[in-house]
Amino acid sequence: MDIDARGPRFGAAVTTVVLAVVLVTGSVWLLAWQTLAFALGAAGGVSRSPYGWLFRRAVRPRIGPPTDFEAPEPPRFAQAVGLVFAGLALVGYTLGPDWLGLAATGAALAAAFLNAVFGYCLGCEMYLLVRRVAVRAG
User: Fold this and answer.
1) How far are the Cα atoms of 23, 130, 137 from residue 16, in angstroms, in the given order?
2) Which stretch of DSSP H or E encloses residue 72?
């Protein structure tokens, strides 16, 4: 079943803000929250993430029914990619080196920003590329 395309973009906007605050403050707790949000989105799909829940409950009723839909698999894969980067960032911030935390947070922030502002999902594009390569190899 396809999902409302505005949901993942809303989640990317919230993620952008959260990760920007992490970079400014160095808050490991906020980064841990974002890592959990990515984990829930990767495990259950973006509609099961905290930001997907917030979108369904608070945003979608105010902006009306969806007109654009997308397959759930690419955004779910993107959440898994975000989880990897957030996990690396947590390691960097807690165990070191600090540059790893900063770089991984910055990379995740850049990807979230591209999705939130321009609707370009790097993780989704990676998913499509992996699928194409798998079809050719298989």
Assistant:
1) 11, 25, 35
2) none
What does the mean pLDDT of the chain come to?
Answer: 97
Look up residue 127 and give its two tokens: 């998913």
Give the pLDDT score at 1.
Answer: 87
Whole-angstrom Cα distance, residue 45 to residue 113?
A: 20
Does the pLDDT of residue 5 top 80, yes or no? yes
Q: Structure pTM?
A: 0.95
What's the count of helices (H) and strands (E) in the chain, helices before strands?
A: 7, 2
Contact 57, 8 (CB under 8 A): no
pLDDT average, residue stretch 7-26: 98
Cis amide linkage into residue 97, ω under 30° from 0: yes
Q: How many CA atoms lie within 13 A of 132 on its CB side?
A: 6
